[in-house]
């Protein structure tokens, strides 16, 4: 009887531990992937390559570009076969690692939300590479007159925000120590 209760307790603890995973996947990761893909689809169907729409003069534009490299055009100048293999491998490993880390989270906190954001960004750009011939659609252009930040997308923003949250959480938030 005690073994049954222990097994039942362990199963209910596992079910409770899985709730943050499904909550974060359903309310952060998947909606962000959908928003990323829909925004890229909209831009690619309503703009010609390199078209530019000024949103905030001298600061923010929508500029349709395609990026064969990683975030902010990293690796764009590598040989295509090497770049494609490297990027697909790195992104796939990142997605698997992030899914495992997210599954191990026992509650929703800054770090688990950060994992969800990074997962959404990585998965969104992986979907692009699979659907669009190993290129990612970028369209958000932040600049100050002629000084430009690399053009990016919603997925890149999610990754950047997620990494920033992890850094902030590491520097400013401490987990309470367990009492013995």
3D structure, described in words:
The protein has 180 residues and is α+β, with helices and mostly antiparallel strands. The chain has one domain (13-172). It is 62% helix and 13% strand. Strand 3 (136-144) and strand 4 form a beta hairpin. Helix 1 (2-46) crosses helix 3 (110-131), helix 2 runs antiparallel to helix 3 and helix 3 packs antiparallel against helix 4. The chain is globular.
Tally of individual helices: 4
Query: Class by helix and strand content?
Result: alpha+beta
Form type: globular
Total strands: the figure is: 4
Distance between the termini: 29 Å
Number of domains: 1
Low-confidence regions: none
Largest sheet: 4 strands, antiparallel
Please state roughly what percent of the residues sit in beta strands, choosing from under 5%, 5-15%, 15-25%, 25-35%, 35-45% or over 45%.
5-15%
What's the alpha carbon Rg, rounded to whole Å?
Answer: 20 Å
Mean pLDDT: 87
Q: How would you write the strand order of the largest sheet?
A: 1-2-3-4
- Which sequence of SSEs, written as H and E, runs from N to C? HEEHHEEH
Task: Write a brief caption for the model.
The protein has 180 residues and is of the alpha+beta class. It has one domain.
Properties at a glance:
alpha+beta; 180 residues; globular; single chain
List the helices and strands and how they pair.
Elements: H1 2-46, E1 52-56, E2 60-67, H2 80-104, H3 110-131, E3 136-144, E4 147-148, H4 154-172
Antiparallel strand pairs: 1-2, 2-3, 3-4
Helix pairs in contact: 1-3, 2-3, 3-4
């Amino acid at each position: 009887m005690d073994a049954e209760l222990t097994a039942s307790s362990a199963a209910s603890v596992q079910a409770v531990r899985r709730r943050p995973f499904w909550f974060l996947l359903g309310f952060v990761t998947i909606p962000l992937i959908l928003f990323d893909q829909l925004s890229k689809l909209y831009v690619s169907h309503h703009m010609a390559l390199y078209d530019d729409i000024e949103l905030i003069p001298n600061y923010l534009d929508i500029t349709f570009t395609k990026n064969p490299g990683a975030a902010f055009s990293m690796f764009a100048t590598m040989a295509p076969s090497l770049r494609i293999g490297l990027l697909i491998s790195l992104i796939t490993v990142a997605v698997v690692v992030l899914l495992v880390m997210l599954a191990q989270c026992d509650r929703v906190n800054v770090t688990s939300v950060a994992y969800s954001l990074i997962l959404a960004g990585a998965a969104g750009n992986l979907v692009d590479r699979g659907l669009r011939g190993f290129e990612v659609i970028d369209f958000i252009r932040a600049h100050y007159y002629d000084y430009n930040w690399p053009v990016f997308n919603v997925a890149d923003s999610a990754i950047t925000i997620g990494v920033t949250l992890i850094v902030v959480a590491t520097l400013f938030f401490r987990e309470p120590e367990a009492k013995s």
